[in-house]
Amino acid sequence: MKRIAVIGAGKWGSALAFALGQNPENEVVITSRHPRDVPNFVDLETALQREYLVMAIPAQQVGAWLKEHFRYRDQKVLVAAKGIEASTGRFLNEIFAPYVPDQNIAFLSGPSFAAEVIQGLPTALVVSSADAQTAMGFAEAFPEFIRTYSDDDIAGAEVCGSYKNVIAIAAGICAGLKLGNNAAAALISRGLIEMRRFGLAYGARDETFLGLSGAGDLFLTASSVLSRNYRVGLGLAEGKAKEQIVEELGEVAEGIGTAYALHGIAQRSGVYLPIATEVYEILEGKAPRESLNDLLTR
Ligand SMILES: NC(=O)C1=CN([C@@H]2O[C@H](COP(=O)(O)OP(=O)(O)OC[C@H]3O[C@@H](n4cnc5c(N)ncnc54)[C@H](O)[C@@H]3O)[C@@H](O)[C@H]2O)C=CC1
Ligand SMILES: O=C(CO)COP(=O)(O)O
């Protein structure tokens, strides 16, 4: 029996708790900063005693959360968030490194809308860890409707999971401006190339970008209104400010923070990130049509 605690009861944490609960080999509890009226809800201290932790707190908040609440007790940790910390440019593996040893941590990626997982719809995910046993331990915890693969390309999982959210914002802008399917396809394919170029510089493996974590999650997120990031793009195309969009969304859209993080990385390192940079400029108020036309005619 795997005793699992999901930390963070938002859309993704709730969906993961549901999915993992479908496997009779697991005993799953969930916790969050606001008590929830769900049968498996426990307080944070109880949750942190569990052997397996699934972290579903957004990337922009998890660093502060770890500092305030986390105490390592040999737990195995699965990081389910996707994003790069805007304030520091840190990836999630860097944020968690001071708290959890490499052999006890894994990262979840792949095309997976929470809204479909919670319906038990077929899904495929990747569990990446430096330790094969840790990756397998989490991969086999998922129920049959979720096909899991395991690998050790943490850099690839992280770059794909975070960067695709920024491309999804750009795709939402493209759709909102009614630039057409040709433009959308050009944008998404160039977004994959940009994400791959950035990821290779971070030590990611090439094949990861054509797999579930890369192309799979990018195509999913950059082509559906189920994506919060895609919906951010639609709002930007309407001329709304990001603050209003986030308020109306009522859920996290990690692509915003990651766009700021990527802009900072590009400024510091000189790496060429045209789409991420244009998304940052539009989030900062640049006219979307001018920006996307620049991008597509460059
Ligand atoms: N929703 C989805 O379809 C998927 C989401 N993800 C990722 O999962 C992560 C979480 O996303 P969602 O659950 O969808 O977002 P959400 O907006 O539905 O929920 C976020 C949750 O984090 C909690 N939270 C925020 N700040 C916190 C803090 N400082 N301390 C404790 N809890 C805090 C909130 O209370 C909320 O319950 C994100 O990184 C997202 O990219 C990954 C795959 C699918
Ligand atoms: O990561 C996701 C799907 O794989 C969820 O995407 P959004 O955060 O854009 O909704």
TrEMBL record:
Residues 34-134 form the Glycerol-3-phosphate dehydrogenase NAD-dependent N-terminal domain. It is found in: Cytoplasm. It comes from Sulfurimonas diazotrophicus. The lineage of its organism: Bacteria, Pseudomonadati, Campylobacterota, Epsilonproteobacteria, Campylobacterales. Sn-glycerol 3-phosphate binds at K82, G110, S112, K164, D217, S227, R228, N229. It is an enzyme of class 1 (oxidoreductase). It catalyses: sn-glycerol 3-phosphate + NADP(+) = dihydroxyacetone phosphate + NADPH + H(+); sn-glycerol 3-phosphate + NAD(+) = dihydroxyacetone phosphate + NADH + H(+). InterPro entries: 6-PGluconate_DH-like_C_sf, 6PGD_dom2, G3P_DH_NAD-dep, G3P_DH_NAD-dep_C, G3P_DH_NAD-dep_N, NAD(P)-bd_dom_sf. The keyword Transferase does not apply. Keywords: Cytoplasm, Lipid biosynthesis, Lipid metabolism, NAD, NADP, Nucleotide-binding, Oxidoreductase, Phospholipid biosynthesis, Phospholipid metabolism. This is Glycerol-3-phosphate dehydrogenase [NAD(P)+]. GO terms for molecular function: glycerol-3-phosphate dehydrogenase [NAD(P)+] activity. The gene is gpsA. Its EC number is 1.1.1.94. NADPH binds at W12, R33, H34, K82, A114, R228, V252, E254. Catalyzes the reduction of the glycolytic intermediate dihydroxyacetone phosphate (DHAP) to sn-glycerol 3-phosphate (G3P), the key precursor for phospholipid synthesis. The active site is at K164. Residues 153-289 form the Glycerol-3-phosphate dehydrogenase NAD-dependent C-terminal domain. Pathway: Membrane lipid metabolism; glycerophospholipid metabolism. Belongs to the NAD-dependent glycerol-3-phosphate dehydrogenase family.
